[in-house]
Amino acid sequence: MSDTTTFTVNDMTCGHCAGTIRKALEEALPGSAIEIDVPTHKVSFSGDKAKGEEAIREAGYTPEAA
Q1: pLDDT tens-digit series, residues 33-63
Q2: Which residues make Cβ contacts (< 8 Å) with residue 24, sequence separation at least 6?
Q3: Among 9, 34, 60, 63, which residue's Cβ finds the most Cβ atoms within 10 Å?
Q4: 46's torsion region: left (phi>0), alpha (psi -120 to 50) or beta?
Q5: How far apart are CA 44 and CA 37, in angstroms?
Q6: Beta-strand (E) ranges in the chain?
Q7: What one-character DSSP code corresponds to residue 53?
Q8: What is the pTM of this model?
Q9: How many domains does the chain have?
Q10: Is the pLDDT at 11 greater than 60, yes or no?
Q11: Domain, as residue range, for 61
Q12: In CATH, what number is assigned to the domain containing residue 55?
């Protein structure tokens, strides 16, 4: 059982950004439940918080605690 982590990613502004972040999270956390809401800039995922945060940063975005 894993907890869900939610970050606010204010520099995610469009569907392309969301797709880039989703791909990075899927590669870093296979099987993770991922939810992305572009209008509110929220990214939620299950699994390792540190790995997910690093994946978002490596994709070029700035996750902040929600």
Answers
A1: 999 999 999 999 999 999 999 999 999 999 9
A2: 55, 56, 58, 59
A3: 63
A4: beta
A5: 9
A6: 4-8, 34-37, 42-46, 64-65
A7: H
A8: 0.94
A9: 1
A10: yes
A11: 4-65
A12: 3.30.70.100
